[in-house]
Each structure stands twice: as structure tokens, then as C-alpha cells.
Amino acid sequence: MATMISTALDLSAAFDSRLNDGDLPRLMELLADTAVSRTPQGDVLTDRKAIEADLAGMITAKAVLHNTPRVVLEADDVALLLIDWVLEIDTPTGRADLAGTTANIARRDETGSWRLAVLNPGGTN
Asked: Where is the SnoaL-like domain (predicted)?
């Protein structure tokens, strides 16, 4: 059974923890069934399996993510999350340190738990 995420703010720490632990099944629990994701390269992933493969690639590359929420606005069952992030990850040319601000949208599901519906790590870029 999926862990209850009681506030949209809690998604940030849960995402960090599960990615950094390499726990892909529990990481995928944080996503709404119809989630979409924009990759750093600008590709939009609308298929859950494609999003899972993208996250699996980050785990394989030994990603270490640190999220710092900047703004979380909840309105009924929808939330906007602006989150500053720092990511350490293995690349073909060595270990890289990246940073940015994500603009994500979350929604509360039928169980009352918050799930990420739109993942946009590039924010306005």
C-alpha cells in the first residue's frame, strides 16, 4: 500500500528520500496515474513507463537530490510547488553538480494523498 502524503509540501522530502535511496517503486507511488514529466532535455513524457525509465536512469546514475521548497500553494485538491534543487549525478564525462528550480503541480487523489501530476524540473527554462 502506498504511503499517505498528507500535504503537498511533504512531496518534496519524499521525492528526495526515495530517489536518493534508489527506491523506484516507492518513488513511482508519488506520481499521479496520469502524470506527465518534462526532461532536462525538453522532452515531454506522457507515458508512465517512460517516466519510470527516466527516473530509473537517474537512480542508475547514482543521483543525489536535495530539494528546498520555495513556494507551495494549495487550493482545494491542486497545488503549485516551486522547489529549488541541487543534483549530483554521474555523467559520461564524470560526476556533475546541477541546480535549478522546478515548477511542479500536485493533486490530491481519491484517498486524500498528494501525488505529483506535472513534473517540470526546468521550471521556466
From this structure: 15-96
Q: Specify if 106 maps to a domain.
A: yes
Per DSSP bridges, beta strands 44-45 and 31-38 are: antiparallel
pTM of structure? 0.93
Ranges of H-type helices in 8-122: 10-20, 24-28, 48-60
46-54 own/partner pairs: CB under 8 Å, 24+ apart: 51/119, 52/24, 52/28
Residue 125 counted as domain residue: no
Give per-residue pLDDT as tens, 65-84. Answer: 999 999 999 999 999 999 99
Residue 63's Cα: distance from chain center in Å?
Answer: 13
| Averaged pLDDT score across all residues of the chain | 95
Lowest mean pLDDT segment, chosen from 40-44, 68-72, 83-87: 40-44
